[in-house]
Amino acid sequence: MQVREAITQGRNDVVVLTRELDHDEPGPGEMLLETVATFISAGTELAIYTGLDPEAGRPGGWCSYPFKPGYANVSRVIAVGDGVRVASVGERVFTMHGHVSRHFATGTGWDMTVHVPDGLDDGTAAAARMAMVSITALQVADLELNDWVAVLGLGIVGNLAAQLFNLSGARVIGIDPVGARRELAQRVGVEHVVGGSPEEVAEAVKSLTGGDGVRVSVDAVGDVRVVRQAAELTADHGEVIFLGSPRASVQADLNEALHPVHYRWVTFKGALEWRVPMEPAPPVRNSTRGNLETVYDLIARDRLHVTPLVSHRMPADDIEKAYQGLLNQKDEYWGVVLDWTTGS
Question: pTM of the predicted model, to two decimals?
Fold first, then answer.
């Protein structure tokens, strides 16, 4: 059986190629899935595409070229093997699989499937994957009702993080230099948005918080320079959460970066989603499966707004055009769904 699959062949080189699967029918415990829609993770996928992630060019690295990108896939079950109980033929499921037209899945562990609720648009269901990245910032934060939170970077991960903190009862300030992203954040309920130079941002945050600074700052960009800015916006005894994965090498004075930690007891915390167990594992409260089920529930109840964060729906064969738009037209491209049911 032939499938179409996206491959990042090298720096700035992504294509959709056709290849043969090694078997045509699902084996025991397997399901055969036909992809309907996938969503591009602009941070991770573009870091690999551009070579920003150093592992991309290192032989044996986790994302070394050639690499199969993507981890937000909504599919329909078209066949099941013996012993499969997690899904039935015809059902829609979410998986962590990449940009591929058909694939096999077991439905558990790292190969989990989550049922897509009836009535939820395919593209929105795929885009909701990014809220699984964002939600970990909320889950690691030491936060109380009505605390101030600053989210630096209002791409889709930052936007969703701002929405989730807003739902928790925090007072949220969204920070981004791109006006279109600030406007989008306001459209989905983020009350305060700020742009401008670091000095202008600091002054605006100071004014909003009565001079105190924020209890929690979230770096949703993955840039050490943003982390330093976040620390300066954070109140004494507050915390900075690393939500974006830092990749670009930056030369800086480490003393300056750690000054808030020592003198003001500002805590740095990591919030990498891959540290969350895939399946429920008491006494750990959260799991990847549980997080997506929570996200789907919030969308269904119109509490979390994901559909407005999809700026483009494009045929899967146009992935190169989508990558270039996300890289170079940030005021127009902020979230791209790839449609696997049509040609380019």
Answer: 0.94
